[in-house]
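dumping this here before i forget
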Amino acid sequence: MAQSVKTNYIYNVLNTITQMVFPLVSFPYVTRIIGADGLGIIGFCNSFINYIILFTCLGIPIYGVREIARVRENKQNLSTTTFELLFLLITLSLFGYLVVAILCFTVPQLQSYLNVFLLLSSQVALTTMGLEWFYTGVEDFKYITIRAIIIRTIFIVLLFILVKSQDDLLLYAGLTVASTVGNNVFNIYRLRKYISIKDIDKIIFKPCRHIKGSLRLFALNLIKSIYCNLDALMLGLLASTVAVGYYSSTEKITKMVMGVTTSLSSVMIPRLSNIIRNGDFEEFGRLSKKSLSFTFVISIPLSVGLIVIAPVLIEVFCGHGFVDAVSTLQILSPIIVIIAISNVLGMQILYPQGKENIIILSCAIGALTHVVLNWIFIPIYSQDGAAFSTVVSELAVTFSMYVFGKKFFPCKVFNLGIIKSITASIILFFICSFVISLDFNIYIELIIVPLIGFLSYVLFMLICKDEIINEITLSVINKIRK
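structure:
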């Protein structure tokens, strides 16, 4: 029995937060012990591995979520679909290792780091057969979160105990891989709870039937991959490596904040896919409407709050030398709202209905817009130009999805709740700006500004009797009383 959407979202947010926090704990230690050279070697090797994984996965990690969600109520169909996808992934990973072998003999730069490269290449098999898509599809988010926290904790402990010098580079690479192995060992062992080889329907066992659907998702992932790496590449070519550093730091901060809103998509995709499969279009519309309302209520204040607190965040996480990144972070902050909306429209509403082509077309339009605007604005405004281009191109993606997919939306995209959220966020902006103007200690500001902003926003939304905030507040009160 699947948990409620609310419970799944809480688990997924917790998982996302720990995913962000653990690197903040480990990275300062790793940079000091392994050094820039060691991290550069791992980064160089992983740049090859990541693209091999992209091709060997063929979009199945996203495609598999929907397909598993559709058949999860029938054990025979669930077993058959799971083993079809696994068979496909294993076959593709064999081709992946053929590429690994070719690279070992044809790329001279890898010869010096061959042991590291080969160790990291084990991620190809471990990722393609990781089964994360299966547990997302059956909505076992409690297991995913608990398992991830356990593995991350073990990794951190072993890192501090075992990695003591630059000579431990191979050991560090091994621990990185082991964290993936740990997840997969748990995943494979737990799989017996849901499926069995005996339940496979040999008559309908046809792995190739999934190729067409997964290729669409692969095309989407490929566009996104090029898209995501484009800013750093073009900044390096058209501006400077310093500009890349400024932009990369702001990108990491926005991704951390975006994790709160994008976590909802991971929860909603399997639930909405299952509802569509069962033909309950009324429930599909109700949940879609609720998801959109929740997204606006959460993402708008996060975006506005990030604009206000940008100087504080840059000072604390990046230091005095990154003061030029403050304006970049402020320009980039609207993507929290824009990407949150496109996630709902694309991955939560269009994708469960099988409308991947609209998502791919929208992302292609965004990618093209991104390239053109980068060529225009980066030479003039450097990292600020890249940030502006990113915001406009993400807006192009969201607008394209709205225009091309409007007839498939089961509810209105915009409602009165947005006006309330914007008004409350404007109030938040002025209150938080005033608090910062009082010039407290930077670390005190880091704590009290978000807290005061949160309380002022929630209070105004409660006064306006916002449905989503009221529901969340009542839920919290009921939990406390219990």
